[in-house]
């Protein structure tokens, strides 16, 4: 018997690779460039005041003027974001495992989770400051509160979505619950976990900024509040641009990690 | 090797009770190849799952190697209709899954895995992921996985039914060859009369709901058998015709 000829999809001609590159990187870049160009055009054509809407050039000047300071503040916000995000994974995944392991636990915990999630986060922010002061802690907690829910929900859903045939396979091998979990159910859930992580990371930066708005002495949110008070709109825009960059970098970092860890999951997308 | 005594299975479904199987008595010899045919829904999968220990009979007893079956045994392996491969594991890692779960010795089974993969023509594909393989190749991997623990009993639930006719025949021939090399008792569920005759020492025919044992047809055709031209074509046709009559509902009258 002869097997089918070798699958040939590993061979990617340079042409196709180039086209992939362009669609992966070129198109998003083109979108950004177009928006900036429009923005610039608008400020020039309608000669809008700088403190209302600064042009891209003003923003770049604002950034260049205080580059060191802005990078420091970016770092503060980035660290808060990542800490809160990691915390929500460390806490959220085990809770999801508990929820997926028994209907009883799920029924007990779910209403609680929903309640906590239903509380408007902006409303808690000042209370967190009262409780924890102006340091990093309330920011990390705020990020955690925003990220936690999507991570728990997606992980639990993933753990429950093991295909029937794999469940049957595990049973037929008389595998223990622990073996079934680590060899089949958890790896299978990972694709879903990443869906939750991507949602969460987009919320994480927002969480950090909300907390900084309410009470902080550092971070990009703090910079925005300060520049708003002194009508330094170009600086506020520079800070917002940096926030956007942080968000994008974190999101694509996560996507790249997913691609590395779960090359097989791409088929299902 | 396998014994079913007065085995019945009743499901309590949402639509009331379903008598899936009623009073099945069957004995399968060591190293015998039995195929199980019957109309859809007559309880073939149910019977196999009971022998595998995945499901307890409502009444009656099942023994494998003289011991009553209460849970899945390590010397019994199950092959499903779908490949059921783990998408993040390579071909080789998938084949070795039972070795890890049953905590068998690594080195000899690794060698065995390579042998089995060679036997089904998958040498060179060990590092591939399942989604990079065709359906037929995936099912070959699944076959290797069900053989890696060197089972005494192999239960196969329509393992080739999702494949095209040629691949299916190819795999049937491979299965016979593997069985010559490694003696195994096999119960094989199929919808295909051809496949049943090609593979079986005996064909067990189940009647439709509730599933009862209709008839056991011995197939005394020398091996190896193929579906192409051979010296026993007449005998194959004869047995196939008999099975066909057993499975089709009786005609309402002579048409001619
Ligand atoms: N878990 C279950 N709960 C309720 N009814 C069931 C269950 N499993 C099977 N049945 C019923 O038992 C009968 C036999 O099912 P089974 O899957 O064994 O049939 P089968 O012969 O394998 O059919 P097919 O050839 O289509 O695979 C069917 O009527 C089915 O609806
Ligand atoms: Mg079936």
What can you see in these coordinates?
The complex is a heterodimer of chains A (269) and B (256). With 269 residues, chain A is an all-alpha fold. Chain A has 2 domains: 37 residues; 214 residues, MetI-like (MetI-like fold, Orthogonal Bundle), CATH 1.10.3720. Chain A is built from 10 helices and no strands. The two termini of chain A are 34 Å apart. The N terminus of chain A is likely disordered. Chain B is α/β, with parallel strands linked by helices. Chain B folds into 2 domains: 125 residues, Rossmann fold (3-Layer(aba) Sandwich), CATH 3.40.50; 67 residues, no CATH class. In chain B, strands 6-7-8-3-9-10 form a 6-stranded mixed beta sheet, sandwiched between helices. A 4-stranded antiparallel beta sheet of chain B has the order 2-1-4-5, covered by helices on one side. In chain B, helix 7 crosses helix 8. The longest helix of chain B has 17 residues. Chain B is globular. Chain B starts with a strand and ends in a 9-residue tail after the last helix. In chain B, 41% of the residues are buried. The interface between A and B is medium-sized, with 29 and 37 residues. The complex binds adenosine-5'-triphosphate and magnesium ion. The site of magnesium ion has 3 residues of chain B, from helix 1.
């Amino acid at each position: 018997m002869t097997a089918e000829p070798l699958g040939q999809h590993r061979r990617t001609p340079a042409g196709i690779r180039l086209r992939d590159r362009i669609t992966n990187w070129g198109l998003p870049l083109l979108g950004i460039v177009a928006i900036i160009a429009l923005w610039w055009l608008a400020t020039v054509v309608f000669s809008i005041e700088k403190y209302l809407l600064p042009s891209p050039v003003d923003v770049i000047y604002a950034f260049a003027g205080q580059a060191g300071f802005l990078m420091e503040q970016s770092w503060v916000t980035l660290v808060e974001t990542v800490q809160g995000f990691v915390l929500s994974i460390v806490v959220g995944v085990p809770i999801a495992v508990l929820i997926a392991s028994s209907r009883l636990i799920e029924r007990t915990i779910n209403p609680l989770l929903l309640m906590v999630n239903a509380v408007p986060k902006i409303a808690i922010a000042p209370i967190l400051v009262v409780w924890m002061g102006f340091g990093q802690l309330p920011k990390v907690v705020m990020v955690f509160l925003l990220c936690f829910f999507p991570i728990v929900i997606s992980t639990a859903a993933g753990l429950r979505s093991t295909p029937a045939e794999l469940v049957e396979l595990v049973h037929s091998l008389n595998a223990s619950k622990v073996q079934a979990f680590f060899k089949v159910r958890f790896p299978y859930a990972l694709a879903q976990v990443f869906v939750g992580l991507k949602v969460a990371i987009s919320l994480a930066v927002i969480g950090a900024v909300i907390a900084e708005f309410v009470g902080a002495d550092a971070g990009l949110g703090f910079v925005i509040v300060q520049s708003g008070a002194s009508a330094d709109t170009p600086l506020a825009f520079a800070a917002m641009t940096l926030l956007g960059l942080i968000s994008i970098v974190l999101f694509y970092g996560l996507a790249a990690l997913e691609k590395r860890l779960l090359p097989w999951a791409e088929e299902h997308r | 090797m396998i014994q079913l005594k007065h085995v019945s299975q009743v499901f309590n479904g949402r639509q009331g009770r379903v008598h899936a199987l009623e009073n099945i008595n069957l004995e399968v010899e060591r190293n015998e190849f039995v195929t199980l045919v019957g109309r859809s829904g007559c309880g073939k999968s149910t019977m196999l799952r009971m022998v595998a220990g995945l499901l307890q009979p409502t009444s009656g007893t099942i023994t494998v190697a003289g011991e009553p079956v209460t849970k899945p045994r390590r010397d019994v392996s199950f092959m499903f209709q779908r490949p059921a491969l783990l998408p993040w594991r390579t071909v080789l890692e998938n084949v070795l899954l039972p070795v890890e779960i049953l905590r068998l010795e690594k080195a000899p089974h690794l060698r065995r895995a390579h042998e089995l993969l060679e036997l089904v023509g998958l040498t060179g594909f060990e590092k591939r992921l399942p989604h990079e393989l065709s359906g037929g190749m995936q099912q070959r991997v699944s076959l290797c996985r069900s053989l890696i623990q060197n089972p005494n009993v192999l239960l196969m639930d329509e393992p080739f039914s999702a494949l095209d006719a040629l691949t299916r025949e190819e795999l049937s021939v491979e299965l016979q060859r593997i069985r010559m090399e490694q003696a195994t008792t096999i119960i094989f569920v199929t919808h295909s009369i051809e496949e049943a005759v090609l593979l079986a020492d005996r064909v067990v025919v189940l009647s439709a709901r509730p599933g009862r044992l209709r008839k056991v047809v011995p197939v005394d055709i020398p091996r190896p058998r193929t579906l192409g031209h051979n010296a026993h074509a007449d005998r194959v046709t004869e047995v196939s015709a008999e099975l066909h009559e057993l499975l089709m509902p009786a005609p309402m009258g002579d048409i001619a």
